[in-house]
Amino acid sequence: MLPGRTHDSSYPLEGPEGAICDQHRVSPREEFHRASLGQRPPTYRGSSPTRRCRGVLRAKPTARKIRSRTRTTPRWNPLSPTAAVVLELPDDVYAGVPCWNGKWARWAHLTVGIAYDLGYQRIRPLMCDGGISRKTLILVAAALARYADYRTGRNARPTNRRLAEDTALSERTVQRGREALRLLGLATELLRGRQRTRAERFASWRLGDRHRGWASVWCLHESSWQRRVFHKMSSHPRKGSLLSVNVSFRDKTTTPGTAGTPSAATTKGASRRRRRQEPSQGRTESRQQGYLLASSWLRNARTPQWARKHTPRGWSAILAPLAEHGWTPDDINELMADWERTGGNWLPPVPYKPIALIATMIVWHRRHNGLDDRPAALALAQEQAAEQARIEQRLRDRRAQEESRQARAAARDLVGGPAHRAAQQVAADAAARAAAKRAMQAARDAAARSELVARQRGHDLPGRTD
């Protein structure tokens, strides 16, 4: 990593998660915890030294087509806004990270402005190298929101230089704006900007891409307390002045159960016909079960990324019949595999209508098997049988280990007893006899060698004179 570079990140200095400049030795998480109103802040799910996110280099389909047609390396245009390669994030990178409530204009001008007015004094001591004004922060937030996904607020990847050109501000001001958004809980840095590796540079150069780094990937959303307040407030406040009677602030801002009732001006006339019939108790419980199944399915590691395009509330309607028959997330994933392999159907990598596709798969499975026949039941039974076999094997190993331990303990208790002393005496006698035999054999060998030496020297030859 080059010295003096921040690589399009809101972390100006290197250090642990939440590290700030030298004049503030306390981490921002601890400062935020001290300054909060007795509530622990939500867990930060962005990129950090303890939770790094690197990504995988992928070539765009258009670049592959151009490469296959020309068979030559395309010329690189530094002014072109498009790139031949893209950094693909892991499937679970957005797990636990919310989306924004509304569109980019509402988030940039309303959500950021409210969060600045209520929380800037708390985060100002945590910011490095100066603060930022409300107007400038909204300007940076609006420029950043233009590059995010229109529906979810995710996948915002502009560089600091690009934002500085769009806002006519300095790059350092843009970095302070991103830092303020992160400390206010309005943005999460999922992938920290970094330089490309040697293999990534070679792979991108072959496709005509001469860029040398990756910009940070951000997800824009509301803070935790804003989500609680926005979801609690009613979109139909009661008529008349809120200050006409003495009521609490909670009664002024929320009107539970009054959105569908007729107003005071129409109580004397005919009652309005309700356009939407209230769901029955059984249907409500079925929807709740479908919601729980959808939540667990979206959190599953095998679930494809395109399924997270919709919320659990959107999936609850079609997954409610599956939840009634005891389906699990593994059953839904196995259903998609059966749809593609057994049924011979085509499963697109990114379906245009994911909910309609899953509904078609459910109808196909119901027509051939029925909902009582769960796709992952056999695999689950095999896993349970294997797990039971492992448990029994561990029990047998533990019993054998216990028997061996008891045998060793019994053998240690016999040490020093009459039988042990008798065995030691027998062993000593056997060792003495073996030693005597070895000594006798050594004496015989020595006598034989002496006789052989004397015979070779001629001492025992008859008739020899000196």
TrEMBL record:
<dbReference type="Pfam" id="PF13730">
    <property type="entry name" value="HTH_36"/>
</dbReference>
<feature type="compositionally biased region" description="Polar residues">
    <location>
        <begin position="279"/>
        <end position="288"/>
    </location>
</feature>
<feature type="compositionally biased region" description="Low complexity">
    <location>
        <begin position="254"/>
        <end position="269"/>
    </location>
</feature>
<feature type="compositionally biased region" description="Basic and acidic residues">
    <location>
        <begin position="396"/>
        <end position="406"/>
    </location>
</feature>
<feature type="region of interest" description="Disordered">
    <location>
        <begin position="251"/>
        <end position="288"/>
    </location>
</feature>
<feature type="region of interest" description="Disordered">
    <location>
        <begin position="1"/>
        <end position="20"/>
    </location>
</feature>
<feature type="region of interest" description="Disordered">
    <location>
        <begin position="396"/>
        <end position="420"/>
    </location>
</feature>
<protein>
    <recommendedName>
        <fullName>Helix-turn-helix domain-containing protein</fullName>
    </recommendedName>
</protein>
<feature type="region of interest" description="Disordered">
    <location>
        <begin position="30"/>
        <end position="51"/>
    </location>
</feature>
<feature type="compositionally biased region" description="Low complexity">
    <location>
        <begin position="407"/>
        <end position="420"/>
    </location>
</feature>
<keyword id="KW-0614">Plasmid</keyword>
<feature type="compositionally biased region" description="Basic and acidic residues">
    <location>
        <begin position="446"/>
        <end position="466"/>
    </location>
</feature>
<feature type="region of interest" description="Disordered">
    <location>
        <begin position="442"/>
        <end position="466"/>
    </location>
</feature>
